Structures are given as C-alpha cells and as structure tokens.
Amino acid sequence: MALPLYLGENATLQSLAGNQPTPNLGLVYEKFVDVWPPEYDSRPKAGTRDGFLRFFQHHQADASLLEAYWRRVETLVARVGGIMLEGATAERLVSGLGSHHPLETGFIWHRTLGVPYLPGSSLKGLLSAYARESRGGYGMLGEERALELFGDQEQHGVGRLVVLDVLPVSPCRLELDIVNPHFGPYYREGEPPADVWAPSPVKFLVVPRGVRFRFAVLGRHGYADPRDLSDAENLLIGALTFLGIGAKTGVGYGLFRDLTRVEDIACGAPRPEQPGETAQAPERTKRANEGEGHARPAPSASELNHDEAIKLFQSLDGLSEDEQVRVAMRLYEYWNTTGEWAEWTKHKDRDSEKHKKKYRRVARVTEILARAGKP
Known about the structure:
Elements: H1 13-19, H2 25-31, H3 49-54, H4 63-80, E1 83-89, H5 120-133, H6 143-150, E2 161-163, E3 167-168, E4 175-179, H7 184-189, E5 202-206, E6 212-219, H8 226-242, E7 256-261, H9 262-266, H10 281-289, H11 306-314, H12 321-338, H13 340-344, H14 356-371
Antiparallel strand pairs: 1-6, 1-7, 2-6, 3-6, 4-5
C-alpha cells in the first residue's frame, strides 16, 4: 500500500488548524487523514480516529465565501425566474456514507467551499421518485407529466427542470453519530452470528438538526412555466418532508421542516436561528433531558459520585466547545479529589484491555483542557 502524501511532512491537522482558521474541511477530510503512526502500516492507529473526526466539530468553513456563493445563486434564480426554498433539517442529515475513505465512512463535501452539500442530481432523483411513487404509482403528477418534467431516454430527454446543488445557508459545525455492528466475524469470516462477538462501534459525521439549507429549481431553457414551478415546489415540500434525502432515510435521517420561499423570508417571515445560537437552546435542553447532551451548568466536584462522573464523561461529544471545557474541568477536579486521576495517568498502554478506558478518560479530558489553555 502506498504511503499517505503527508507522511514525513509537517502538514498535520494541528498545523492546518493553526495556520488556517477556516480550512477547507473537505480537503482535510479527504487528503489529511492523520491517523497513522510513524511505522505506517495498513491499519489506522488505535484511538486516534475519534480525534480526527472531532476536528470537524470545532472548525467551520469560510462564511464569506459561502455568502458570496449565495449572492450569485440568488441573482441567477431571480433573472431566469426560478424558485428557491429554504428549510431546516428536522433530523440529522448525512450523505456519501458509502463512498471510499480510509476510515470506512465517507462524507460528501463541496469541493471549493468545504461545506456539506447534496448534488443537484440527487435532489432531482428524489423529486422524480416522489412524483412517480407517492400516493400509489403515478398518482402525484401522472406518468407523462413526471417524464415531461424530469426527462427520460426515449422521448423527453433531460426534461424541463434544472435542479441546483443543495448547500447550507451558512457554515455549521458537525456532530458525531454511531453505528454499532455486533456480528463482525459473521460478515467478515462467515462465523455464526452469536452474542459472544463484541460490538464494533463506528463513528461518522452528520449534519445536526436545525441547519438551514436552500433548494433551487430553474427552467431548462432560461424560463420556467409557472405550472412547472408550482409542481416543483409541491414536490420539494412533499419529498423533503416525508421521504428525506441522503443516507439512512429509512430510519428518519434527511427530513426537513419549515420549507419556505426565500423571497417570503426576505419580506419578513421569521427564520429560526442556526444551531449554536439562541433558538437552539430549547433543543439542546430537550436533548439534555434525553441523555444526549448537557445544557445545564456542570455540577461541582463535590456534587459528583463515580457513576455521575462516568455519565458526564460519556456526554462530552454532544456538548458545545464551552460546555465541554466546563464539564472537563469538573471531571478533572473530581478525579483529582478521589485520587483516580493520579492512578490513571500511570497507564499509558492504550492497547491494554484492563486500562484502556481509564487511559482514554485521561487523554480526552486533557485534550479538552489543553485546547482551552487550562491545566
């Protein structure tokens, strides 16, 4: 196997983050998978996959480039008389999971802007499928009308509609999700599926709930019949609300809500804030009550016990950066008080089953506090 291009060079995640406040995240994800040890072999170094993925939780794309992109698209849509809808993710969104990547879980990035996106061809396929298959057979538009709008290889060619790529309104921070296959030897080696096999959790990047995207449709020849645009708008709302787009739609991913024409939003209709701003606080509180996050102030060290400390540690990935620092500080203080921190720091062997979890707790808390400049 060929060595990674960066091996032996100084182009690591840390140097990228230090030199570029807004690096092209797609380039980092595809070309700088910095998870191999110096004695490079074909397997990623244990324990560093999560650190690589967390890089994308704490960095965002260049907002000015994305803003300039949307100004150009808005001008295009206005001049040719197309439509543009804006809506927020009702559930998590992910696309490209099956594409090739060293970490086995792919992700689709816009090549030049470095933001998550969905190709226009994917959206066009979704709309065509919804027109043909919803309400039983061709009940939504009728077979002939669906072929007229989206085309075929016999009579209609490329169809009457042009569907543009789908991008977020502004840069967003990503989250981590997990799949947890339990029968690895069954899939890899043909062993009988049984409860004796240990699960193999695999984390992957997702767009969180509440991120706003735009969907634009134009006429093929620079002008769209109002009826075509009306049908396209109904299809967009129906398909994105009930079917979803991207991967894992069968379990609820990729659904959208609050789909509204952009000109209506510009005329004064309220638009929810992006994640991380005021409007997300209720959602974060809800997730905290469900055990997915921790929006309340971190308890002091004197209020913790062993089980509560472990639960707090397990909640770290679902917190904002500031909340991670506060929780990590409480954990550090608590484990220092109990003497566990001094004991755990002695165990540097991350491959030892006996001490692996203890080592990871120390390493994770130390990483968060170091990033915030705390001891």
